[in-house]
Every structure is written in structure tokens, then in C-alpha cells.
Hints:
Elements: E1 6-11, H1 14-22, E2 27-34, E3 40-46, E4 54-59, H2 63-68, E5 77-82, H3 86-95, E6 99-100, E7 105-107, E8 110-116, E9 122-128, H4 133-139
Parallel strand pairs: 1-4, 5-9
Antiparallel strand pairs: 2-3, 3-4, 6-8, 7-8, 8-9
Amino acid sequence: MSRIALVTLVVPDQDEAIAFYTGPLAFELAEDEPRPGGGRWVVVRPRGAGEGSGLLLARAKNEAELARVGDQTGGRVGFFLHTEDFAGDYARMRAAGVTFLEEPRHETYGSVVVFQDPWGNRWDLLQPAAPTTADQEHTA
Length: 140
């Protein structure tokens, strides 16, 4: 096994989810295919991820699934979006109306800020700290 390909995110409306993830978050729509019975297979990925990890945006089909929308990780940050341009992505997302739950922080592990999607799922936008010379010597 070499990678996690997809993580399911239950949403109330796939078109709204596509609009959020491909709009303010600038993901790409990788797949949007009809399924038997009127369902859809919808996958979004961060731009440049190629065949890397993505989100399967699954429409909630019943009351139990609807009850989980926005709280799929019990109120914890459940998703981690890495960036190479923290300040630029933060400014772009904020201008696009993304809800941030705190001010950006600069920690030893990198720059981070918590945001939420329109349904309440919490995300970290994170630019990991560059490895130090000691880190590089340790791995050499």
C-alpha cells in the first residue's frame, strides 16, 4: 500500500460542495460521473496533486448521514491542507469569504490557521516549517 487515495466527505449538496472546493479553495474537479440510481461520483483534489489524495464528495442519503455533515470528526480539525504560500493562500481564501476560526499562528512546525468549510468541518491551512540544518544533518 502506497497512499490514501480518497477520503469521503459527506455533504448535503454536491454542487454546493463543488462550488466551495473549486472556488475559494481552488481545488480541481477531478471526477463528476453519474452513478446508477441517480447518484454521482464526485472527486476534488488540490491543484497539482495529480493522482494524489482527494476528497470524495458524497451526498448524504438519509437522516443519519445528514446528522454527520459538518461534524465528521467530532469537532476536531479533521483535514490538513498544506501550502507553499501561506500568506498568499490565506489572503486569497479570506477574500473569497472562507470562515477562519482564529488568526494565523506561527508555530515551531510551521504557519497555521484553522478554517471551516460551509458545513462546519474544520481544516488546518498549514505551511510546514523548512527543515533546519540540524534536521538535514540528522537525516543524512
